[in-house]
Amino acid sequence: MKNLGKFGMYGGCYVSELLIPVLSEVEAAFLQYKDDPEFLEEFHTLLKDFAGRPTPITELPTLSKELGCTVVLKREDLLHGGAHKTNNVIGQALLAQRMGKTELIAETGAGQHGVATAMVGALFNIPIKIFMGSKDIERQRPNVQRMELFGAEVIPVESGSKSLKDAINEAMRYWTAHSSSTYYVFGTVAGPHPFPELVAFFQKVIGEEARAQCLERYGKLPHTVCACVGGGSNAIGIFRAFLDDKNVKLVGVEPAGEGIATGKHGAALCEGRPGSLHGSYSYCLQDSDGQIQEAHSISAGLDYPGVGPEHSALKDSSRVQYIAVTDKDAVEAFLMLTKKEGIIPALEPAHAIAAIKQIATSLKQEDILLVNLSGRGDKDLDHIISYLKNHE
Ligand SMILES: *Cc1c(COP(=O)(O)O)cnc(C)c1O
Hints:
Layout: E1 6-7, E2 10-11, H1 20-33, H2 37-49, E3 57-59, H3 61-67, E4 70-75, H4 85-98, E5 103-108, H5 112-124, E6 128-133, H6 134-139, H7 141-149, E7 153-157, H8 164-177, E8 182-184, H9 195-203, H10 205-218, E9 224-228, H11 233-239, E10 249-257, H12 268-271, E11 273-277, E12 280-284, H13 309-316, E13 320-326, H14 327-341, H15 347-354, H16 356-360, E14 368-373, H17 381-390
Parallel strand pairs: 4-14, 5-6, 5-8, 6-7, 9-10, 9-14, 10-13
Antiparallel strand pairs: 1-2, 3-4, 11-12
Helix pairs in contact: 2-4, 4-5, 4-9, 5-7, 9-11, 10-11, 14-15
The structure holds pyridoxal-5'-phosphate.
Residues 83, 85, 112, 188, 228-234, 301-302, 346, 348-349, 374-375 line the site of pyridoxal-5'-phosphate.
């Protein structure tokens, strides 16, 4: 492959020999279309007419007063589908169509990426197979029903721990065997090259819009930009536009789960070490023998033991500061944004909201603290209510 997708020492393409030509074909298509005016026109038209871009920015009146800085949200929760994932699946479905592929596959843990992929399958009228651990199918019934309503076939994975890690392995296996007709829609900026670069490309619209919106409304850039980090796609999506603005501080927020000390967390960058996972070299959670450990978080979307390689490089260079927030603090932030501002966040970006109190202590009233609200919280209501019952 032309470019091995390295971010410093991280990234790369550590997959079976059989998958190398398959990934090379995706890379070639991506390099061909990423500057193609017709492709980009079609992508941005769908983002606008189907998905509802541009999403607005919203200044929070109550929290800005209380915290002593100007808190502004980038409203990916208002995107069709309820989260930023829509940007990525539209981009990849278009690419698959250009490549002449007649079937899309994806893996899903909690089901959100599966639902997003099934949604574009319906839009593009392409058959979809979603690989999902049988344990996750039991835990995530409503998302399975949504995928099936869109017309996707949900394939239970019975191997290993019957959850996300095994679903990814199974999807890779299926792809290897059916690559001439099938495109694999990867869900975040992790995995083998070219996915980290390709998913970032389709998500960078978030930061490009937000940067222009801040300049237009406030005549200046934010002091700090903050986003939650699971695999890292919504964070890279908003950070990319600000990487060269050396005065803009960037903060990524990982899940500290039940607390770092309990070992039940998902803070790959804050607590992990560089290692190999799903075809890429990056920070990940592993035991002393290098075995990948399970991640834990109240939010299904942050429950991943690895993280995209670009984040690993941004951590080492200190361009982005990574911190971790517990389940308990995320739930508190969820309730705070709901009660004080009338916005119900998804549990994932509730982690970013939980970090703003601490960040605000070094900011002045006129300083802008821009937070990426990556998704809305309707999907999490049952979960929150049972969490509150169990923690009374
Ligand atoms: C999936 C998801 C995430 C986590 O994925 P990233 O790739 O880290 O962005 C965050 N927020 C929401 C709302 C999600 O659905």
